[in-house]
Amino acid sequence: MRLILVGPPGAGKGTQAVHLAAHYAIPHISTGDIFRANIKGGTELGKLAMSYTDKGELVPDSVTNDMVKDRLNEADVANGFLLDGYPRNIFQAEVLRGILTEKQTPLNAVLELAIEDALIVARLSGRRTCKDCQASYHLLFEKPAVDGKCDKCGGELSQRPDDSEAVIQNRLTVYAEQTAPIIAFYRSEGLLVTIAAEGDVSEITSRAISALSTKVS
Ligand code: AP5
Ligand code: MG
After folding, report:
1. Residue 40 a catalytic site member
2. What pLDDT was estimated at residue 118?
3. Is 215 a catalytic residue?
4. Cα 74–chain centre separation
C-alpha cells in the first residue's frame, strides 16, 4: 500500500498514521517528525528546519524533497509506505509523482482527513508529545496513564513549540493557501478518498480502512 495522508494541522494525521501503518504493515514517514528529530539532535538540517517550523512556515522545497527522496530509497519501503505531512504543496506533489514514476511504484490512494477549524484548535492546544519517541497525547482526549509521562517509553511529555495560538493560526493559513490545492490535484488523478476526521480515534481508523478497501494492493 502506497498511501498519503492529507489534512490540516490537528486533523489527526499522526494519530491515524500509527494505526494505519500497523494495519497495512508499512512504514510511517512523517516529514514533521523527521524535522523534529533533527532539531532535537542539533543537526544542520534541524537548525535550518527550526527557523521555519517555529513560525509555522514550510521548510524550503529543495530541502524537503531531497529528504523524502532519500527516505523513499530505503529498504523498508519496498512493500509500501504511508506519507504524513508530505507533499504539502503542488510542487512537492509533482516531485513525488516524478520519484514514484521513476521507481514504477505509483500511489494507491490519498486519504483526506476532513475536520472543522474549531475542533482543530482544541486538539492542538491540548496536545502533548513525548520528547523521546514523539508519541502524541491529549490533555483531555488521549491522556497518558501517568501525567506528563509517555506510556510507551516513559519519556517526558511537552507541548510542541508550534502549538501556540499564534503559530496555529499561521499553520492554518499556510495549509489553506499552499497545501489545500493538492486535494484537487489528487482528486483529478482519481486517487482521493475523503473521510470525516471527527469521533473516536478507533472509529476514524475503521472508517479509513473501510473507505480505502477498494484501493488496497
Ligand atoms: P507536521 O508535524 O506535519 O504538523 P501539522 O501538519 O501541522 O500537523 P500536526 O502534526 O500538528 O497534526 P496531526 O494532523 O498530525 O494531528 P495529531 O494526530 O498530532 O509539520 C510541522 C512543521 O514541519 C510544518 O509547520 C512545517 O514547518 C514543517 N514541515 C513538515 N512537513 C513539511 C513539508 N512537506 N514541507 C515543508 N515543511 C514541512 O493530533 C492532534 C491532537 O489531537 C493530539 O493531541 C491527538 O491526541 C488529538 N487527537 C487526534 N485524533 C483525535 C480524535 N479523533 N479525537 C480527539 N483527539 C484527537
Ligand atoms: Mg502530525
Report:
1. no
2. 87
3. no
4. 19
